[in-house]
Amino acid sequence: MNYLLLINQGSTPTPEDQQAWAGLSEEERKAIFADYQAISQTPGVTPGQRMQAPEMATTVRVQNGKTIITDGPYVEMKEALGGYLLFEADDLDTAIALAARIPAARLGGAVEIRPLD
Questions:
Q1: Strands 45-47 and 110-115
Q2: Whether the Cβ atoms of residue 5 and residue 81 lie closer than 8 Å to each other
Q3: What is the CB neighbour count within 10 angstroms for residue 60?
Q4: In sequence order, which residues have a C-beta less than 8 Å from that of residue 12 and are 6 or more positions away?
Q5: Residue extents of the structural domains in the chain
Q6: Class of the 2-115 domain?
Q7: Which of 36, 60, 56, 57 is closest to 48 using CA atoms?
Q8: Is the pTM of this model over 0.85?
Q9: Cβ atoms 13, 107 nearer than 8 A
Q10: Three-state secondary-structure class, residue 7
Q11: Element (H, E) at 87
């Protein structure tokens, strides 16, 4: 089964948020990088790309045949989608175990798992 793991940053400190990132020890920052690297090397994982902040989004709608473009995300989001990865696993329990290893899941964010057709 193939799964899409959507990584919601929530209040997770990231390198882009220099103040929050600086609040972590050097050891914690190294552990986060090491965790993401190990996850990317897990058999069955196809790493995705980290996304820029929701404010960088462009939303496109078509109404009555007219294309409408809006700067920013479609909806206000409490937990911004920060990245994703694809995972080929035998079952949902294996996908859950991988999601639990993603640093964002333990640092104030969440990981949503969606089966793919």
A1: unpaired
A2: no
A3: 9
A4: 82, 103, 104, 107, 108, 109
A5: 2-115
A6: alpha beta
A7: 36
A8: no
A9: yes
A10: strand
A11: strand 81-88
Instruction: Kindly report, residue by residue over 74-95, the tens digit of the pLDDT.
Output: 666 566 788 899 999 999 999 9
Nearest to 11 by CA among 27, 24, 26, 25: 24
In whole angstroms, give the CA distance from residue 7 to residue 81: 6
Q: What is the pLDDT of residue 59?
A: 84
Which of 47, 39, 46, 43 minimizes the C-alpha distance to 90? 43
Please state, in angstroms and as integers, the Cα–Cα distance from residue 89 to each residue in 9, 12, 44, 70, following that order.
23, 26, 7, 37
Token readout for 9 is 């940053």
Indicate the burial class of 12 (C-beta count within 10 angstroms; 0-12, 13-18, 19 or more): buried
Output the six-digit token pair for 59. 């939303």
Distance in Å from the first CA to the final CA of the chain:
8
Residue 61, both tokens: 């709608």
CA dihedral (5, 9, 14, 17) positive or negative: positive
- DSSP lists the bridge partners of residue 46 as 86
